[in-house]
């Protein structure tokens, strides 16, 4: 942000116009611009008389007497407020604190301690303060070219070329050297910034709908970084100065090559005599090198009789100048005042000799006694040295609470140090000397801008004059204290810089006499103000946008964390470049002032730009002394108050959201809250300064704020590494799921890869046969059901899983093709299932004869669940015969036949291009089964021959139709028809007809699909639709999705959207969300049900992404919802993988389940007999891990999951649980790698936004 430099004010009066160059501005919150130098003292340093020279530049004389101290007489004047009266300071007038010693800071300088400056050389015969007739104007006498001192001999030590035969220089040769540490820091920063810029452009802008926001923030960041790059120029070079020569004939004084005459000009307006008198007396009392002389001029634009009368008593060395006539439209009163005096001293056309110097002191700047003896000798380095500049400090600044950064240590001790090395002139308007001839060539003090010092430096540079910098505080002044006064001062500097740059005649960019480097440096001040006016509010707004709108400006990823960490460290190295640890906190005040003054810069920029179109700019002086004691109103503080209250409210709402939504603390929202705390500190400090106090309490508040800010910065870096979404290899997750399927296969597994070792030969159930009276034959193979069914094989669920797997391969083939063997594994899984399903079907010749159409027996279950529950053993040890339960299509098995037909059709399409024979075989069976299912319509569990299920009354089944118990074909008991009760059949036929249409392209099947779809909605089957379940039993929503893809019919779109809207937005008492974000259905709260819906969300998102699918269906459809569907599906998948809690995916992630209710994996080695005692009830984890299994989950218990196998269903596993999950992994794998754009999904969930935009409805 634009700089807030320490400026020397001049009472309600003139002061230097631009202050330190604003190119030192910080551009990022919390980042200041420190630098380093080899000498000088900071107002923040603690000194003793023995260590005053510890940081003096090389040209300072280390052996000078006590009368040539550096800051010895100003140390106490710069001391902190320690031991003071605390906030009582705010009740003491500035006049008292400066003049009467009412403040606890007791200046030790005699000039500051004196109650009133006494006459220096009173004129004889003129009584002090006598009355005299007032004249219209008081002029300065012109200098005398023929004065004796012009021809005065040089000191004896300077012979022809001096006593060391060194010729007197005529051209200045600047000494400088590279700073090794500064160059290293700059190199590190350049590398870090380059890497950061690459990552930001390539890795962090994938924000979807909010990419425009991310680009804006990136542009602002780059703009801010440019000022840091300019700052780096200041730390790579150190100036090297020649040592001062001490005068052997005048101990304590320095030698000079010429008898310089110093014209000290003190411009003033309405300052009190006490303030101006102290400045004049200090200038008169300061020591001069031998043979030098001075004249002090009080340039009074206020025509103050008291000043005039007092000046007359002070002798010929003090001249009072006043009475000038103001020009119409005068821009800079200070410059006009100075030029009025200079024009009288140096008449136009009269050559000015090189020994004539002009010194400028603002009215409140009291010079140290050794000011001139340390400044004047630097002109001897060359006749082209046009200016010697010294820093500024202030007696009334609470250095422990300098929230306006008046002391501006980063500029005086670091930036000017670098400018000195590069030869860049950055004049600051006071405490400087300039060669009169150079001043005249520059046109004297520029009147065309508010910032005459900034313009003067440029004018001298254009004319090839050089500047020297004395890195030592040699004068002390008074800083503005009232908020309005500070704002006006900084606004004036800002507007003055803009005036020059926007002026075609004076703009640095168009000055041919300046090098391009100099042009850029002189424009850097304006650029810093622009950057400060943009970056500070932007970085205040960013966390607010995150809290209220839920939008973060970058993709937070591993790349982002690495790049940001590197960049922040490099930025800290640059901004913390200093050699005194005591400077860390003062440098922090630069960041504080940036955050306080940004709106001032905005207004200054706006008004300056307006002035280029003819709008006038008013020169507002800086008040001093008792004039400063104005009241601060909301007119001065309304923007800081808005910022403070806005940040405070956002902090409160953000904390409320973190607590109530239970999303954990490691989120971008938390990062933004830390950011808000950082940003609110400067606003609070300003309000404290204004309305609470400026002493002890403010100093303590600043101390706390400094450490809290530092802690926030550290927390932000840590959160960057914790907050970014975990990266998941969904292709690997997909492979794990297929591994789990293989762990559940039974039958002869020889020749199949991926079978776990604990399921190795001898295999389970390798001799199973169908009903013997039907001569069924082999019925081996298939998949164990798992869960409550244990090793039982259930035909409709296997068909459902097969259909879902085939659908995922057909829709998300890209996800399978990311691995060379995943597609092959998928086909192998499908064929294993369909091979078994083909074995469950057998011709029914009797029924076929009656029907005169092909009819079939279908085995719907293998294994007796009653016997299954009685033992707990490994499948391989269960060697007894297992019953097969069957029905005939002649009695009505539309649901079972439809399920099988759909599974065969979907699988056939996967094999169509690689195994035509298998494709035709599956399609043949599919069409025959479909035809049989449509002739005699009904559910296979209603009114058909089957054994009665045991404990029917105690089995929890939704809408179970209790069948009539008839003798079964075998065992009479053990069928799981109550558990796997089919409640509808029209949806199954819709599902089958839709797949047949996809596989064959026959429109007749599509007509059938419409028929069965309508049949479903005019029957009682729709009662189940409101449960919003998609599984082997309820297929209307998957069928609707498939038909929407085929037909693009609004009817089907609406059905799917209704289903997904209820899952994404909750549906009253049916769909709910846990505290950590898992969606669950109260009718089936398993994790699997959520994954089935997530799979459908991905499928539908893929469907509506193309613009052709953006159709209108009621009030719910919107193509933009595709992203929402994908994000929701991914959030549910990430929940299962342990993104916000433990993993529920066996064998993967954080603390996955290990106590699985799964016979095969829970049993110990085969040399140990497996039983309930050592495998089911044991507290030990399963000895074998079925990697890739999805457990049932916490169910209705929200996020509370207990990893136990006995007495609960939470650790059940089943191939049906993985059906939808496998499709989700395939879809996410196809979308992308890593977090698959999940960073985009985290955007847009703020305090004001609902869970998702599509939840809104007009109904």
Describe the structure.
With 1259 residues, this protein is mainly α. The chain is built from 37 helices and 17 strands. It has a seven-stranded mixed beta sheet with strand order 5-4-3-6-9-8-10, sandwiched between helices. Strands 12, 13, 14 and 15 form a four-stranded antiparallel beta sheet that branches. Helix 12 packs across helix 15, helix 20 (795-811) runs parallel beside helix 36 and helix 32 (1087-1104) runs antiparallel to helix 33 (1121-1136). Mean pLDDT is 80; it is low at 1-13, 20-111, 117-132, 148-166, 623-630, 944-972, 1107-1116 and 1247-1253.
The multimeric state of the shown protein is single chain
What does the radius of gyration come to?
A: 44 Å
| Overall number of strands | 17
| Percent of residues in helices | 40-55%
Mean pLDDT: 80
SS-based structural class? Answer: mainly alpha
> Unreliable stretches, pLDDT < 50, 5 or more residues?
1-13, 20-111, 117-132, 148-166, 623-630, 944-972, 1107-1116, 1247-1253
With strands numbered from the N-terminus, the spatial order across the biggest sheet is 5-4-3-6-9-8-10
The biggest beta sheet reads: 7 strands, mixed
Number of helices: 37
Strand composition percent:
5-15%
Amino-to-carboxy terminus distance: 50 Å
Shape: elongated
């Amino acid at each position: 942000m634009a700089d807030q430099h320490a400026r020397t004010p001049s009472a309600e009066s003139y002061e230097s116009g631009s202050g330190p160059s604003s190119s030192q501005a910080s551009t990022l919150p919390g980042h200041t611009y420190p630098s380093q130098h080899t000498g000088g003292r900071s107002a923040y340093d603690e000194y003793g008389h023995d260590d005053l020279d510890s940081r003096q530049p090389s040209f300072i004389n280390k052996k000078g007497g006590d009368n040539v101290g550096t800051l010895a007489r100003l140390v106490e004047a710069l001391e902190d407020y320690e031991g003071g009266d605390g906030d009582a300071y705010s009740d003491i007038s500035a006049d008292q604190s400066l003049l009467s010693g009412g403040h606890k800071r007791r200046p030790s300088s005699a000039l500051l301690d004196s109650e009133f400056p006494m006459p220096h050389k009173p004129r004889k015969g003129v009584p002090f303060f006598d009355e005299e007739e007032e004249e219209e104007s008081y002029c300065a006498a012109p200098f005398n070219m023929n004065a004796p001192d012009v021809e005065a001999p040089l000191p004896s030590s300077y012979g022809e070329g001096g006593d060391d035969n060194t010729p007197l220089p005529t051209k200045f040769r600047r000494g400088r050297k590279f700073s090794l540490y500064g160059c290293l820091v700059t190199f590190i920063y350049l590398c870090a910034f380059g890497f950061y810029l690459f990552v930001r452009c390539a890795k962090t802008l994938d924000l979807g709908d909010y990419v425009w926001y991310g680009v804006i923030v990136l542009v602002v960041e780059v703009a801010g970084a440019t000022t840091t790059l300019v700052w780096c120029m200041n730390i790579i070079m150190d100036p090297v100065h020649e040592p001062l020569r001490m005068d052997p004939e005048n101990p304590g004084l320095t030698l000079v090559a010429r008898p310089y005459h110093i014209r000290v000009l003190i411009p003033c307006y309405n300052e009190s005599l006490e303030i101006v008198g102290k400045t004049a007396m200090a200038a008169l009392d300061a020591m001069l090198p031998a043979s030098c002389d001075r004249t002090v001029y009080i340039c009074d634009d206020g025509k103050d009789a008291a000043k005039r009368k007092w000046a007359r008593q002070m002798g010929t060395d003090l001249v009072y100048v006043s009475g000038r006539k103001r020009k119409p439209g005068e821009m800079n009163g200070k410059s006009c005042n100075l030029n009025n005096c200079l024009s009288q001293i140096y008449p136009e056309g009269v050559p000015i000799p090189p020994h004539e110097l002009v010194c400028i002191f603002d009215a409140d700047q009291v010079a140290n006694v050794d000011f001139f003896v340390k400044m004047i000798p630097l002109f001897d380095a060359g006749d082209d040295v046009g200016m010697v500049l010294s820093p500024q400090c202030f007696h009334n600044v609470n250095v422990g609470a300098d929230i306006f950064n008046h002391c501006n240590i980063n500029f005086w001790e670091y930036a000017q140090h670098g400018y000195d090395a590069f030869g860049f002139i950055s004049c600051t308007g006071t405490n400087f000397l300039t060669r009169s001839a150079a001043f005249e060539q520059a046109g004297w003090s520029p009147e065309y801008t508010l910032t005459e010092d900034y313009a003067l430096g440029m004018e001298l540079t254009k004319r090839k004059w050089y500047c020297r910098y004395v890195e030592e505080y040699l004068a002390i002044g008074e800083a503005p204290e009232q908020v309005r006064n500070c704002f006006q001062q900084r606004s004036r500097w800002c507007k003055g810089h803009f005036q020059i740059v926007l002026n075609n005649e004076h703009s640095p960019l168009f000055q041919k006499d300046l090098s391009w480097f100099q042009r850029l440096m002189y424009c850097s001040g304006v650029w810093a103000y622009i950057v400060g006016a943009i970056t500070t509010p932007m970085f205040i707004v960013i966390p607010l946008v995150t809290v209220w709108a839920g939008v973060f400006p970058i993709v937070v990823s591993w790349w982002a964390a690495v790049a940001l960490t590197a960049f922040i460290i490099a930025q800290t190295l640059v901004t913390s470049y200093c050699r005194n640890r005591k400077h860390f906190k003062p440098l922090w005040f630069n960041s504080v002032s940036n955050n306080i003054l940004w709106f001032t810069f905005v207004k200054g920029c706006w008004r300056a730009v307006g002035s280029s179109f003819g709008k006038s700019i008013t020169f507002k002086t800086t008040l001093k002394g008792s004039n400063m004691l104005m009241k601060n109103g909301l007119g001065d503080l309304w923007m800081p108050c808005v910022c403070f209250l806005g940040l405070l409210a956002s902090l409160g709402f953000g904390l409320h959201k973190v607590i109530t939504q239970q999303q954990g603390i490691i989120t971008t929202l938390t990062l933004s809250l830390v950011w808000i705390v950082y940003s609110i500190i400067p606003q609070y400090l300003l309000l404290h300064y204004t309305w609470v106090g400026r002493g002890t309490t403010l100093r303590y508040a600043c101390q706390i704020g400094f450490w809290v800010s530092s802690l926030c910065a550290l927390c932000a870096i840590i959160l960057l590494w914790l907050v970014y979404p975990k990266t998941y290899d969904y292709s690997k997750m997909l492979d794990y799921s297929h591994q789990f399927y293989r762990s559940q296969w039974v039958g002869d597994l020889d020749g199949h890869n991926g079978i776990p070792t604990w399921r190795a030969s001898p295999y389970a159930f390798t001799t199973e046969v169908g009903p013997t009276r039907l001569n069924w034959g082999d019925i081996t193979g298939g998949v164990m059901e798992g869960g409550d069914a244990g090793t039982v094989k259930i035909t409709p669920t296997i068909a459902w899983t097969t259909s879902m797997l085939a659908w995922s391969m057909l829709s998300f083939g890209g996800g399978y093709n990311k691995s060379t063997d995943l597609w092959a594994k998928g086909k192998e899984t499908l064929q294993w299932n369909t091979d078994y399903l083909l074995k469950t079907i057998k011709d029914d010749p009797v029924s076929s004869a009656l029907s005169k159409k092909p009819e079939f027996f279908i085995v719907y279950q293998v294994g007796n669940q009653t016997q299954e529950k009685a033992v707990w053993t490994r499948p391989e040890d269960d060697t007894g015969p297992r019953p097969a339960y069957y029905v005939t299509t002649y009695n009505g098995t539309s649901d079972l036949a439809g399920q099988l037909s759909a599974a065969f059709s979907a699988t056939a399409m996967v094999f169509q291009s690689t195994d035509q024979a298998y494709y035709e075989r599956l399609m043949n069976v599919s069409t025959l089964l479909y035809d049989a299912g449509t002739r005699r319509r009904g559910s296979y569990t209603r009114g058909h021959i089957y054994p009665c299920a045991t404990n029917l009354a105690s089995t929890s089944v939704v809408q179970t139709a209790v069948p009539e118990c008839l003798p079964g074909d075998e065992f009479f008991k053990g069928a799981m028809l109550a558990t796997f009760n089919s409640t509808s059949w029209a949806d199954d036929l819709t599902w089958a007809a839709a797949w047949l249409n996809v596989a064959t392209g026959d429109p007749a099947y599509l007509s059938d699909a419409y028929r069965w779809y309508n049949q479903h909605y005019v029957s009682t089957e729709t009662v189940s639709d409101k449960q919003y379940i998609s599984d082997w039993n309820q297929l209307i929503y998957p069928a609707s999705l498939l038909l929407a893809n085929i037909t693009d019919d609004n009817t089907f779109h609406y059905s799917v959207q209704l289903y997904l809207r209820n899952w994404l937005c909750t549906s009253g008492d049916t769909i709910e969300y846990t505290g950590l974000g898992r969606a669950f259905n109260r009718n089936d709260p398993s994790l699997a049900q959520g994954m089935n819906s997530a799979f459908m969300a991905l499928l539908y998102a893929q469907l509506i992404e193309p613009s052709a699918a953006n159709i209108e269906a009621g009030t719910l459809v919107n193509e933009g919802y595709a992203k929402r569907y994908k994000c929701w599906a991914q959030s549910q998948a990430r929940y299962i993988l342990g993104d916000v809690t433990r993993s529920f995916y066996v064998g993967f992630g954080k603390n996955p389940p290990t106590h699985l209710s799964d016979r095969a994996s829970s049993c110990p080695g085969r040399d140990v007999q497996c039983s309930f005692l050592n495998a089911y009830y044991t507290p030990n984890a399963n000895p074998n891990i079925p990697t890739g299994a999805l457990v049932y989950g916490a169910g209705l218990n929200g996020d509370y999951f207990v990893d136990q196998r006995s007495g609960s269903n939470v650790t059940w596993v089943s191939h049906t649980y993985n059906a939808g999950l496998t499709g989700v992994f395939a879809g996410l794998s196809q979308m992308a790698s890593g977090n698959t754009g999940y960073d985009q999904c985290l955007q847009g969930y703020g305090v004001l936004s609902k869970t998702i935009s599509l939840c809104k409805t007009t109904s």
